[in-house]
Design a protein that fits this description.
alpha+beta; Arc Repressor Mutant, subunit A; 60% helix; Metal_resp_trans_reg; DNA binding
Length: 101
Amino acid sequence: MKKKHIELDEETLFIVSQTFKALSDPTRLRILNLLFNGEHSVNDIAEKLSLLQSTVSHQLRFLKNLRLVKYRREGTTLFYSHDDEHVIDLLSQAIEHAKHH
C-alpha cells in the first residue's frame, strides 16, 4: 500500500528536524530510553547513567523545550517522564531496527 505524500510546511519541517536532532545525541537517547520505563529524578538519571547532574539537566532542558519530556515537582525535586508517545514509538522502532542488524 502506497503512503500518501504529505506536504511539509516550514513549522512542521522545523519540528521534525529538531526531533531528529534530539534523537541524534547518544546521551539524550540514553535519557529517553530510561524515561521510557518510568519517571526519574535528575539525580536518579545521573546516577543510573553515570552522568554529571549538570549534563543531565542540560539535556533534559533541551528535551523539554521540544516537549519530548515533562516534569513534576515534589518539594525541591523534579521528576521527569517522557511526554510524546510518537517519539517513544520512533525510538523503540529504531532500537529494534538496530538490534536486528
